[in-house]
Each structure stands twice: as C-alpha cells, then as structure tokens.
C-alpha cells in the first residue's frame, strides 16, 4: 500500500547518495548516471563548491519573500541573460517559467492565440499543458486553453499557420520529451523570420536544452536566433527547484507590480546554487563540453549508427536520443542497463535518451556506449530467436 498518488511508473530501487557522476541505491549498488536527474544535476552530485555555497546561505537566511529587494536576484539575473536586452522573472520550475512566458506574451501583445508544435513538451499546468503537443497526457483534463494551434516541427508548410493575430509561437530548440528531435537550423531561422514579419513573439523553451547541455549556455545560440522570451529551469540550480523566464525589456510594461508573482520563486537558497552554477559555466567549461560531445558523437556513430535495432541517433551536444525499433522496447533496454550499473532515460518514439552530467569524463561516455551496444545487440538477438 502507498500513500502516494501513482503518477509515476517508478524503477524498483531508491537512489540515496551520489558523488560526481555516480549514484548509489539502498543496497550500495553503484550506477553511472546518464540522466542527471532528467537534465538537472549537470554538475553531478555532491559538488564541493555548490555544497559550500548552499551551506553558507543556509546559515544566513532561507526565505525572505519577494516583497523585499534582492541583490542576489539582480546578480543571478545579470549572469543569466544572454544579452542586457532581457529582464528576468524567477519562479520554481520549467512549467512555471512557461506559464509566465505565456502570460507575458498574451498581456504584452494584447492577443491570445499561440502556435506550438506536435511532439513538444512545455509542462503540466493548464497553460503549459495546453501548448504541449502530446494528446495522451492531456486526456481527461479538457477543455484546456482555447486558441492554441499545433504545427509540425521542422515543417515549412506549418509556418503558414503564423499570422498577425497570434500572440506567440513557443518552440524547443531540441524536442526533448518528444524524442530528442533537433530543430533544423534553417527552419528555426525561417520560423523566427515569419514571427517577425507578422509581429508575433517568439518564445524559446530552453528548460531541457539550456545551461550548457549542448555546449552553449543556450541551444538557440548555435543559430541566428534572437528570441523575445526564453525559459529555463532544470540545470539552473543543479537540483534545487528554480525556473526563470527572460523577456525582452521592451515587454516590461506588461509585467509591472501585481501582474504576476510567486511566494517561493527567486528564494535565496535556490538562487545561491544558481549563482554558483553560472560561475562554473565559463567559456572554458563550455568548451570542454563541446570537446566531450565530439568524442561522444564519434563513438555513438562508430558503435551504434549501423547497429541492427537502432533506427536513428539524434540530438546535439550531451543531449542524445537513440531511437530503437519497436521490437526492442526502450523500457526493457533501460532495465537491462540498470543491471549493468547505468542509468538512462526514455523519450517518445521508443527513444533511449541520454542526458549525462556535463562533468562526465570522456572515458565514462565511451564505457557507457559499450554497455548500451551490448544491451541492444542482446535484445536484437533475443528478438530474432523468439520470432
Ligand atoms: C522542454 C521542457 N519544458 C518544460 C518542462 C517542464 O519543466 P518542469 O518539470 O520543471 O516543470 C520540461 C520538463 O521536462 C521540458 O523538458
């Protein structure tokens, strides 16, 4: 019997400790982590600098409310924005950041309609769920927000759905939950151009792709993009709950006193962790992520690209999807990898998703690929024998 709502299908063990990129269950089994707690613990576990900073803040003050000034919020906001053209609203999660983005876009534009894309994921609150392109997780919760239309990701004819009456378009640079589908550079840039032509705000959801995951602080920085609104969360405080919505300062008048708010958002503990994370994400750190990504992709291509059972390898940087044939259910692969001491994730379209901590070593990535290869080969052989 359980006292919890059974909203998650959970693996049959509990993770109780971690250090670096290794986590341990209650039986002291060690696992190499290729999940980062779903893209959160990008600097790994028990990071000494982060621990020290948060412990020092614990002894000062945990919470003050947003009714008082915060030089810490100012400091983190200044480090977070890609250019000084943006202002920041701090909240507690990716969903909340997207909720704030939708509200800002609607109020600033004085329009309501939003274009999103199939296979997108933007969160589970009513607004964020309304713009999520996954019918299965919406079942039973309708009616949701009106005025939301869905185009097809990476599809040029879908850009015709953009017209003057839209408030905003919301898009991921790489669709994470939807199957680790990378946006095509030309299409993303055409999307932005079309938004500009029609006076439509562009919201880029960097909740999963941001904070160095692809080798740049934000994935949109790989392209000639200049979003009106950007949302982040997950890796920002390496595990303390936080989210942030950055909007162009030209939109600021729509978010004046009383227009939006939160009790916990921007609290000193999470902000201290975020401040330290941002100090660690230097250009040198990001360059190391790029180098590791090159190595990772070299071995992914070499070992897995032509392997029977693998239909595609997708993503960018340290955000990778290994799409499997339907005869090899991804959940079975994940369970077999547990036995080999490796933690991985799934995404839609029978995809094995890898989001390793950014501090992982090249040799650990190569070792993980070997284990993944063994499991896929074993699963393919087993499928052939049972046919
Ligand atoms: C792209 C994207 N947006 C929004 C969210 C929602 O974030 P949270 O779970 O922090 O509310 C997620 C979570 O997976 C995400 O991947």
From TrEMBL:
<protein>
    <recommendedName>
        <fullName>Acetylornithine transaminase</fullName>
    </recommendedName>
</protein>
<dbReference type="InterPro" id="IPR049704">
    <property type="entry name" value="Aminotrans_3_PPA_site"/>
</dbReference>
<keyword id="KW-0808">Transferase</keyword>
<comment type="pathway">
    <text>Amino-acid biosynthesis.</text>
</comment>
<keyword id="KW-0663">Pyridoxal phosphate</keyword>
<dbReference type="InterPro" id="IPR004636">
    <property type="entry name" value="AcOrn/SuccOrn_fam"/>
</dbReference>
<dbReference type="InterPro" id="IPR050103">
    <property type="entry name" value="Class-III_PLP-dep_AT"/>
</dbReference>
<dbReference type="InterPro" id="IPR015421">
    <property type="entry name" value="PyrdxlP-dep_Trfase_major"/>
</dbReference>
<keyword id="KW-0028">Amino-acid biosynthesis</keyword>
<comment type="similarity">
    <text>Belongs to the class-III pyridoxal-phosphate-dependent aminotransferase family.</text>
</comment>
<dbReference type="GO" id="GO:0042802">
    <property type="term" value="F:identical protein binding"/>
</dbReference>
<dbReference type="InterPro" id="IPR015424">
    <property type="entry name" value="PyrdxlP-dep_Trfase"/>
</dbReference>
<dbReference type="Pfam" id="PF00202">
    <property type="entry name" value="Aminotran_3"/>
</dbReference>
<dbReference type="GO" id="GO:0008483">
    <property type="term" value="F:transaminase activity"/>
</dbReference>
<keyword id="KW-0032">Aminotransferase</keyword>
<dbReference type="GO" id="GO:0030170">
    <property type="term" value="F:pyridoxal phosphate binding"/>
</dbReference>
<dbReference type="InterPro" id="IPR005814">
    <property type="entry name" value="Aminotrans_3"/>
</dbReference>
<dbReference type="GO" id="GO:0006526">
    <property type="term" value="P:L-arginine biosynthetic process"/>
</dbReference>
<dbReference type="InterPro" id="IPR015422">
    <property type="entry name" value="PyrdxlP-dep_Trfase_small"/>
</dbReference>
């Amino acid at each position: 019997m359980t006292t919890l709502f059974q909203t998650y299908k959970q693996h049959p063990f509990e993770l109780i400790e971690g250090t670096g990129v290794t986590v341990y269950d209650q039986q002291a089994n060690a696992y190499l982590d290729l999940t980062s707690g779903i893209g959160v613990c990008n600097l790994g576990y028990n990071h000494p600098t982060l621990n020290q900073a948060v412990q020092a803040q614990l002894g000062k003050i945990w919470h003050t409310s947003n009714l008082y000034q915060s030089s810490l919020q100012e400091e983190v906001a200044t480090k977070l924005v890609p250019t000084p053209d943006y202002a920041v609203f701090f909240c507690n999660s990716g969903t909340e950041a997207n909720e704030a983005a939708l509200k800002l876009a609607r109020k600033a534009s004085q329009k309501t309609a939003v274009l999103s894309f199939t296979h997108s994921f933007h969160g589970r609150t009513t607004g964020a769920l309304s713009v999520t392109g996954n019918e299965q997780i919406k079942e039973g919760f309708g009616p949701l927000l009106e005025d939301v239309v869905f185009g097809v990701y990476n599809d040029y004819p879908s850009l015709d759905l953009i017209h003057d009456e839209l408030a905003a378009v919301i898009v991921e640079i790489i669709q994470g939950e939807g199957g680790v589908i990378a946006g095509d550079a030309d299409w993303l840039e055409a999307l932005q151009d079309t938004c500009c032509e029609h006076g439509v705000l562009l919201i880029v959801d960097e909740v999963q792709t941001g904070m160095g995951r692809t080798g740049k602080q934000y994935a949109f920085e790989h392209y000639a993009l200049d979003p009106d609104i950007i949302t982040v969360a997950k890796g920002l405080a390496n595990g303390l709950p936080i989210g942030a919505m950055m909007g162009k300062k030209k939109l600021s008048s729509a978010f004046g006193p009383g227009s939006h708010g939160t009790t916990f958002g921007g609290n000193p503990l999470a902000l201290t962790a975020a401040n330290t994370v941002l100090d660690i994400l230097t250009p040198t750190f990001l360059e190391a992520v790029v180098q590791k990504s090159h190595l990772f992709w070299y071995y992914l291509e070499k070992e897995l690209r032509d392997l029977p059972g693998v239909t595609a390898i997708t993503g960018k940087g340290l955000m990778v999807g290994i799409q499997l044939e339907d005869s090899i259910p991804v959940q079975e692969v994940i369970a077999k990898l547990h036995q080999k001491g490796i933690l991985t994730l799934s995404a839609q379209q029978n995809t094995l998703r890898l989001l390793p901590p950014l501090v992982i070593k090249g040799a650990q990535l190569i070792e993980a690929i070997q284990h993944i290869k063994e499991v896929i080969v074993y699963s393919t052989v087993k499928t052939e024998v049972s046919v």
